[in-house]
């Protein structure tokens, strides 16, 4: 059961103690937040089981607008903060908003993917990652077992700190996903250290496979290597039928992208009947 007053009180106290304007609100359209002059809202995109093509999870995405209603890139908001305390507060507020809106809409069992800002990981004392959020999550009516924390590890140079944070999160029952693997500084050495439950392959690799035969041949090998680490694989950013088939053919476990549904404030429902699934070899598209 959701405990609304405890959630509101927490952020009022946080705002007062840190002198940052971060507040939680409830309205007809669900929960929203205020951070300074900015308004924070949720959007959700489904993740589908590749075998049966039904929704098994939703990724929560942050939508930020200024006083005039103009959309602001979430990354730019986090980058504008000069101290980790502000990042921790904003990151926590965003995840609570998403958790409330997810809980209020969900009708079938599903997991919720929540992004964790890299600076948040560095702003929490060793051994305490997830402690406050576990309590806030219980106020939202959810448990850690329903949550997948999505970490963009390539943005954090201190890999040992990320590893310690992941170990602590896992000890509390959270599952861990590494986002955008294959982009920037991502490599298998870091993946071996972090032992995530889920790895999301960067969209750029899916797009390259459309035009580069070597990339198309590499994708199934990459999926197999990740499976050998004991992790599931998500192909994200799928926008076309060809990318859909290639992702299936690669052996990916979970699929995500505009081809199935665009993000929406209401949990999108996927009509899997329109998705054709012949397991054609990706090489046939080269």
Describe the 3D structure:
The chain starts with a helix and ends in a 31-residue tail after the last strand. α6 links the parallel β7 and β8. It has 286 residues and is α/β, with parallel strands linked by helices. The longest helix is centred in the first third of the chain and has 22 residues, at 84-105. The protein has an eight-stranded mixed β-barrel, surrounded by five helices. It is built from ten helices and eleven strands. Mean pLDDT is 90; it is low at 277-286.
Distance between the termini: 52 Å
Based on secondary structure, the structural category is alpha/beta
Order of strands across the biggest sheet? 3-4-6-7-8-9-10-11
Proportion in β-strands: 15-25%
N-to-C series of helices and strands:
HEEEEEHHEHHEHEHEHHEHE
Summarize the structure.
By secondary structure, this protein is an alpha/beta fold.
Key phrases:
286 residues, alpha/beta, 8-stranded mixed barrel, 23% strand, globular, disordered C terminus
Helix-strand layout with pairing:
Elements: H1 4-18, E1 22-27, E2 30-35, E3 38-49, E4 55-65, E5 71-72, H2 74-79, H3 84-105, E6 111-116, H4 118-123, H5 131-140, E7 147-151, H6 159-171, E8 175-181, H7 188-194, E9 198-201, H8 203-211, H9 213-228, E10 232-235, H10 241-250, E11 254-255
Parallel strand pairs: 4-6, 6-7, 7-8, 8-9, 9-10, 10-11
Antiparallel strand pairs: 1-2, 2-3, 3-4, 3-11, 4-5
Helix pairs in contact: 1-3, 3-5, 8-9, 8-10, 9-10
């Amino acid at each position: 059961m959701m405990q609304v007053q405890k959630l509101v009180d927490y952020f009022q106290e946080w705002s007062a103690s840190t002198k940052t304007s971060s507040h939680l609100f409830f309205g007809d359209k669900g929960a929203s937040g205020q951070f300074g002059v900015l308004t924070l809202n949720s959007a959700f995109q489904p993740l589908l089981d590749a075998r049966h093509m039904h929704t098994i999870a939703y990724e929560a995405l942050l939508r930020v607008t200024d006083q005039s209603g103009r959309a602001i890139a979430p990354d730019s908001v986090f980058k504008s903060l000069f101290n980790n305390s502000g990042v921790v507060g904003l990151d926590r507020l965003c995840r609570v908003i998403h958790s409330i809106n997810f809980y209020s809409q969900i009708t079938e069992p599903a997991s919720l993917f929540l992004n964790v800002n890299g600076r948040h990981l560095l702003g929490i004392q060793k051994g305490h990652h997830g402690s406050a959020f576990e309590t806030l999550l219980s106020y939202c009516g959810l448990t850690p077992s329903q949550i997948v924390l999505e970490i963009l590890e390539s943005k954090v140079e201190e890999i040992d700190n990320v590893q310690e944070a992941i170990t602590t999160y896992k000890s509390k029952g959270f599952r861990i996903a590494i986002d955008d693997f294959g982009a920037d500084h991502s490599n298998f050495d870091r993946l071996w250290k972090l032992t995530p439950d889920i790895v999301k392959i960067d969209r750029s690799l899916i797009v390259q496979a459309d035009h580069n035969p070597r990339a198309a041949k590499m994708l199934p090998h990459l999926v197999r290597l990740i499976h050998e680490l004991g992790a599931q694989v998500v192909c994200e950013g799928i926008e076309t039928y060809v990318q859909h088939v290639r992702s299936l053919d690669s052996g990916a476990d979970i699929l995500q992208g505009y081809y199935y549904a665009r993000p929406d404030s209401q949990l999108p429902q996927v009509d899997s009947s329109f998705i054709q699934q012949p397991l054609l070899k990706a090489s046939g598209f080269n």
